[in-house]
């Protein structure tokens, strides 16, 4: 939910009337005037002007930053020194720089400002704002991977004017640091992959006292230095101009990916105009953008300033650790096509330019060489995806709003009546008493416990909305405590900040304050949040934060947080501080009852993956928004936050049956799969849709449930090495250039399942791009597709999801339909097997209790399935822990009930049995093998019936 307009119940009613009146003109667009363009943002304009000056001057441009050689000190994997900035008035400013070479192979460059570190500055307007540049982003974001490399060494063969460091695996990486002008070139195997300040755009706007000019004589460039107004709000900027900027060049790289959140293609576009390009830089300033537009670099709700650059056989990346408003320009240019050049790579250089309004320069550089290496190293720093509770990866039913507890029970009963599985029902804002969180509306939700108990009968869950804005009302206990404990965000004058949000006049909890954590935890306790049970989970919305009457619908930048940090300094991490506090609260709800928290967040930053799932906010019920959801979800995945989804059906407006059906067929491929709808829309629970659409939608949801074992395995993989749960083409085939920009088809984990959802109207065939020359089989009827590097036409009637499986895989699934995923816990498995050209296949399965943290003590099953030389085997990938034996015992009765082999060897026609050998057994038993001949382009298949081997056991099946 969240519609960023202040609405009382009355205006809500009125807008409903207006909506009816406007029903014939559904076209909506974002209110551009509510959000800044680069030209309207002082520091964006200044940094772009710097780039323009540099490119206008070409070779004669020289960066005014030099590393003073006398200050350089290299020890224990870390180089320290002082950068000297020479200003236009020939002042020399000292900027301490650190370059760290990490054990993980990443490098980190930090630049700060000496005067500000020493507090040797004056701040205007008697502001209490912290004098330092914000250096605590990492406190919220980085959880590991900072060990410096002991093996990094100075390269003795360095020319004067340079300091070169060898580091990384087998010293294959080298950082070539030029002193004057300062520049760092990162090499892998002797080839340059990343250049820092190569374009000379390094910029640290140093602190300076304000010089009062005669009226009318202020230099134009100072126009936005000391204060800045937008949309009727004035930012007092007590520290004056303080932006930081830096250019990062990827020589020979044609594609860059990442930096969510934007509603745009996976392969990022150029941002300096021209056909097909953007005019504006990609912006990262977490905002509640009402009715956002597509194909746009505009900011949205979340920010992950992490970018991967990719070319054939090489991926590198950078992570810009800064929590302030950030913009990123991207320009691609023809590389100097020197015929003597050794490089066999792309003739394009991608030049990026990053700048933030405040904070320090803090940049991580990753040298790959594979996308998996980048995911892993980045994840060591910011953490991997939390392994979610199992229910969280099933289907979620939400709308703004289920209006009473009886309504919830009725929806629950209807799903059962129509035999459509679902796991979670959600309550938006209106369940509260007058928009006071941690309370229930006494008229509409008189019996919340009864409702949750009813849901629990089929092990279903409830998620309720809890937002960071607290209704400013004297008789509301949460408001009283917020104030008495001094835990609210303050305005620039140090008073409690008051703004307008859902409840009307509101205050905001300041989760930067450590004291907010125990308090926030106390509010979630079962005895404080009365009526909540242990199957209730939390949705943190509006945490950008959204402030209806604030500048750009958020807080004033000169508001103050704990530590006297200005909101300007911390804006983009604000959202995850709330999620972090909620995560802690969910762990502490009741002693001895520790379950993995489930939290959905709208606002996010790098690191959010450790604590939450995200969705793409308030999308619209249009085909275009359906299409846009795929690159958005894929982008989140490669930026390390793969537990992502979009509102199925579209939030605003009413989807027609075809759109809703196609949206479900696409939505089952979102790692986070939730239907949601605006309060003004018609009810659209899947059982309400008429036939044949109801059945088609039910089948799509059931397909998700059938494949939950494969999904959970993919989530597990993400939780240990950072790989995306759904993967784009380039990630799976990093050497296949024709696939790099493809973002409308996706792979589920490492399963070989390749889905191509239909996202356009009246479309009944589609094409799927296949990169390699393995056979691909239609998942449902085994039609064979083969042929590398081309698009294959695939039928896509409305009741069919275009879905292929590549040869060479073993995919685990569960075929028995149930009401909820928890009820599938003891069901047997089916294994689907396809052979590759060598006649081999492999796959894996991860299972645990789906609920507790016992897996950390060995309570899980992790199997590697292998087929070669006519033997299918299951080997253990797990390691024993204190709880292993106990868990295996509970799973002892869970078996494989069926193995389906697609396109088996022809000789199998004459076979009727297979031999099954369980670990340790002296003799095997047999099971029936049935062979099914198929014609007209469809592969034959064979089925092993009831092998009944234990899912947690070691065994082999001999064909
Ligand atoms: C750009 O160049 C002009 C002319 O040399 C100069 O006046 C201006 O200050 C420069 N701007 C920046 C941001 O460097
Ligand atoms: C929450 O933030 C603290 C730092 O304040 C950090 O140590 C902790 O790891 C975070 N929690 C999670 C679940 O990431």
Walk me through this protein's architecture.
Residues 96-329 form the Glycoside hydrolase family 31 N-terminal domain. The structure is a single chain. This protein is an alpha+beta fold and 959 residues long. The chain has 3 domains: 39-210 and 232-382, Immunoglobulin-like (Sandwich); 386-721, Glycosidases (TIM Barrel, Alpha-Beta Barrel); 747-958, Golgi alpha-mannosidase II (Immunoglobulin-like, Sandwich), CATH 2.60.40.1180. 18% of the residues lie in helices and 27% in strands. It contains 16 helices and 52 strands. Strands 6, 7, 8, 9, 10, 11, 14, 16, 19 and 20 form a 10-stranded antiparallel beta sheet that branches. A 10-stranded mixed beta sheet has the order 43-44-48-51-50-49-52-47-46-45. Helix 6 (405-417) packs parallel to helix 7 and helix 12 runs parallel beside helix 13 (693-706). Residues 3-27 have low confidence and may be disordered. It binds 2-acetamido-2-deoxy-beta-D-glucopyranose (2 copies).
Annotate the secondary structure layout.
Elements (H helix, E strand, L loop, with lengths): L8 H13 L20 H16 L7 E3 L5 E3 L2 E9 L5 E10 L5 E5 L2 H4 L19 H5 L11 E2 L7 E6 L5 E6 L4 E6 L2 E6 L6 E2 L23 E3 L2 E3 L8 E7 L4 E4 L23 E3 L21 E6 L2 E7 L5 E9 L13 E9 L4 E6 L4 H12 L12 E3 L7 H13 L6 E4 L20 H9 L4 E5 L3 E3 L5 H8 L14 E3 L2 E5 L7 H9 L11 E5 L19 E2 L3 E2 H21 L11 E3 L11 E3 L7 H16 L5 E2 L11 H11 L5 E3 L17 H14 L1 H14 L4 E2 L1 H4 L13 E3 L4 E3 L9 E6 L5 E3 L5 E2 L4 E6 L7 E4 L3 E4 L15 E6 L6 E8 L11 E9 L2 E6 L7 H7 L4 E8 L10 E6 L6 E8 L8 E10 L4 E4 L1
Parallel strand pairs: 22-23, 22-34, 23-24, 24-28, 28-31, 31-32, 32-33, 44-48
Antiparallel strand pairs: 1-3, 2-3, 3-4, 4-5, 5-21, 6-7, 7-8, 8-9, 9-10, 10-14, 11-14, 12-13, 14-20, 15-17, 16-19, 17-18, 18-21, 19-20, 25-27, 26-27, 29-30, 35-36, 36-37, 37-42, 38-41, 39-40, 39-42, 43-44, 45-46, 46-47, 47-52, 48-51, 49-50, 49-52, 50-51
Helix pairs in contact: 6-7, 9-10, 12-13
Bound molecules: 2-acetamido-2-deoxy-beta-D-glucopyranose (2 copies).
